What does this fold into?
Amino acid sequence: MSSDRFLTLLTDFGLQDNYVGVMKGVIACINPHLNIIDITQEIPPQNLDAANFCLMTAYPYFPSGTVHVAVIDPGVGTQRRAIAIELATGFLVGPDNGIFTGVLDHEKITAAVELTNAEYWLKPEASTTFHGRDIFAPVGAHLATGAPLLKLGIEIDPATLIHIDLPAFTETDAGITGYIQYIDRFGTLVTNIPGASVRDRQWSLTADGKDIPGCKTYGDTRLGSLLALEGSHGLIEIAVNGGSAQAELRTGYRSPVHVVIKQKI
It folds into this structure.
């Protein structure tokens, strides 16, 4: 058995315990030739906002047909659905809890199923605490090996899929208001405000009552200073040159921020 298809994993399991290794073992038992890539296993526990952001911003960088298995699952063992989704450009496997919101906002859905066919599970009776091992890993492996999506369970209406209710950024004469949607390991605070909205302008950002200068690079400020700039995601983010904006500011996920546009350069 061979495969040139990629399978990614994104979880909040961390690497201290054996959960991720067990999932990879299950996948290898189904197809040892799959190319498995970790997007990250270090999502903050049960943080769907962070998981949604990381998957949404990683998805475009993988080959067409990649199977993405994402498991941040505070509702494991409850009535929440286990799902698989076929897109024009790939597949998503995981809990129906909004984790795929960002990807689904940008990609066309071909079909979606609830994972009710236990023939594609690890065992007929799944654990009530580890669907990553018993359902999502094996289903992902079967999909990446060529199993048709509609054989995995009951087809469902894509309109019924759960979406995270995320606030949008708003523009007024006074500027642009948005929120913090992700915090990386450097303590950088990533907003939902597009960087394109401040290009070729003088601007600043207000967060936690502080006025933070808008810059182009980290080198535009002194070491230890707060700054705001357009990051690699194309979004405005708040950072400290050589430090942590998260530690500097009393702010976190979904905290509001406001951009003031001063003038064109």
Q: What stands out?
A: The first strand starts at residue 6 and ends at 11. The chain has two domains: 6-160, 170-264. The domain at 6-160 is CATH 3.40.50.10790 (Rossmann fold). The radius of gyration is 20 Å.
